[in-house]
From TrEMBL:
Its main location: cytoplasm. Residues 55-93 form the MYND-type domain. Residues 10-244 form the SET domain. InterPro entries: H3K4_H4K5_MeTrfase (IPR050869), SET_dom (IPR001214), SET_dom_sf (IPR046341), SMYD2_SET (IPR044419), TPR-like_helical_dom_sf (IPR011990), Znf_MYND (IPR002893). CDD domains: SET_SMYD2 (cd19202). SUPFAM superfamilies: SET domain (SSF82199), TPR-like (SSF48452). One of its GO terms (cellular component) is cytosol. It catalyses: L-lysyl(4)-[histone H3] + 3 S-adenosyl-L-methionine = N(6),N(6),N(6)-trimethyl-L-lysyl(4)-[histone H3] + 3 S-adenosyl-L-homocysteine + 3 H(+); L-lysyl-[protein] + S-adenosyl-L-methionine = N(6)-methyl-L-lysyl-[protein] + S-adenosyl-L-homocysteine + H(+). PANTHER family: HISTONE-LYSINE N-METHYLTRANSFERASE SMYD, N-LYSINE METHYLTRANSFERASE SMYD2. Gene3D superfamilies: 1.10.220.160, 1.25.40.970, 6.10.140.2220, SET domain, Tetratricopeptide repeat domain. This is [histone H3]-lysine(4) N-trimethyltransferase.
Length: 430
């Protein structure tokens, strides 16, 4: 008997989908809610922010997980999860200890390191690859623009920097190709509130083509992907999932698909644009906006969204230049401080309070040396640190920083300034 995990060949088949390359087709009827197939992760990685909430190996969410005794950063259900995860965790365990706060490879780098190990461990086709194997992934290398190539280069640099101890790395071209494949075929695992839990490779799931009116949805149980019908599917029909957030109107979806997956969608939704008008609904009370105002506002909105999306990449740019400068400059160097300040700003913008705090703590002492004794820059840095610490319930550290800020501000703003009164209140309050 076949494992329940495996796709059934008599129910599903790989085929050449017109204009789309290979795809997946149903060989029998499926009803809404039917589990069509499941796919265990080829390899996976828990996102850094969820450490302690989920088991590093099986992604179970529970209280009282046990810590890795060496790095104290990975958490597990029990010895069995920890032991099974060791071939992957050992890539990071010692490295995290060595680099401390400077250990910051992107999730793509972490996932790709695991793929390289998995490729060595697994010489046969894995249960994750029954419909499509990792080697068959498309890289779309010829479609990459300079920005994407640079990102891959920086990922490769980070891979060498943080993982060098454990690898005979493949040559550069092989790595570029692998990263490009991961970018097009990797999955992010999310919880029931769509919070990001981690990244994974599900080769068989990656066989499905995209449609903006998909007939299946992929969900996750632990580190296993499950594919269920959300429409009636007849034998002979292609099975489509959606690669993107379907909230947005056609033009936005098409841009996103082209940018990330290099194709133009020709689904019914894209052809008819049936929902676009509702998705871009214009307010009906007061003065009716004119067509060119609507056009301008769509443009503005899309830019605003894009700007926010890029905030993530900004941090990578900061970190990359910090890495580079670190080869020559000390942490107290003003050029390094400038980049750390930018990185802290991005963290604040993204509400990554711990990240912002880490940068701020590195900045504030050299700042105090470089600036004159009474400086708004130094005061504001102490103030940011103080408020971050208070917000994170580190009250004694928070108070210390707030008092440093106050000492400067009582001089530069005057003792009667409302800012000063506010800080005093914060000091008394908590
Ligand atoms: Zn576990
Ligand atoms: Zn460890
Ligand atoms: Zn479409």
């Amino acid at each position: 008997m076949r494992s329940a995990l495996r796709p059934m060949p008599e129910e599903l088949e790989r085929f050449l989908s017109e204009g789309k390359g290979r795809g997946l087709r149903a060989r029998r009827n499926f009803h809404v809610g039917d589990l069509i197939f499941t796919c265990p992760a080829y390899t996976h990685v828990l996102t850094v922010n969820e450490r302690g909430n989920h088991c590093e190996y099986c992604f179970a969410r529970k209280e009282g997980l046990a810590k890795c005794g060496r790095c104290k950063l990975a958490f597990y259900c029990n010895i069995s999860c920890q032991k099974t995860d060791w071939p992957m965790h050992k890539l990071e365990c010692a490295s995290m200890c060595k680099f401390g706060q400077n250990w910051n490879p992107s999730e793509t780098v972490r996932l790709t390191a695991r793929i390289l190990v998995q490729q060595k461990l697994q010489t046969e086709i894995t249960p994750s690859e029954e419909l499509l194997s990792l080697n068959e992934f498309e890289s779309n290398l010829d479609q990459l623009d300079n920005e994407k190539r640079e990102l891959i280069e920086s990922d490769i640099a980070a891979l060498h920097h943080f993982y060098s101890k454990h690898f005979d790395f493949p040559d550069r071209d092989t790595l570029v190709q692998l990263f490009a494949k991961v970018n097009c075929n990797g999955f992010t695992i999310e919880d029931e509130e769509l919070s990001h839990l981690g990244s994974a490779i599900f080769p068989s799931v990656a066989l499905m083509n995209h449609s903006c009116c998909p007939n299946v949805i992929v969900t996750y149980k632990g580190t296993c992907a499950e594919v269920r019908a959300v429409k009636e599917i007849n034998a002979g029909e292609e099975i489509f999932t959606s690669y993107i957030d379907l909230l947005y109107p056609t033009e936005d979806r098409q841009d996103r698909l082209k940018d990330s997956y290099f194709f133009i969608c020709d689904c019914r939704e894209c052809a008819t644009k049936a929902k676009d008008e509702e998705k871009l609904e214009i307010r009906k009370h007061g003065e009716i906006p004119k067509p060119h105002d609507i056009k301008d506002m769509i443009k503005y909105s899309r830019n605003a969204i894009e700007e926010f999306r890029r905030a993530n990449e900004l941090l990578e740019v900061c970190e990359l230049s910090l890495d580079k400068m670190g080869a020559v400059f000390d942490d107290n160097n003003v050029y390094v401080l400038h980049m750390m300040y930018q990185a802290m700003g991005v963290c604040l913008y993204m509400q990554d309070w711990e990240g912002a705090l880490r940068y701020g703590q590195k900045i504030v002492r050299p700042y105090s040396k470089h600036y004159p004794p009474y400086s708004l820059n130094v005061a504001s840095m102490w103030l940011k640190l103080g408020r971050l610490d208070m917000g994170l319930e580190n009250h004694s550290a928070g108070r210390r920083s707030l008092r440093k800020a106050l000492a400067i501000m009582e001089v530069v703003h005057g003792k009667e300034h409302p800012y000063v009164a506010e800080i005093k209140k914060e000091l008394e309050g908590k």
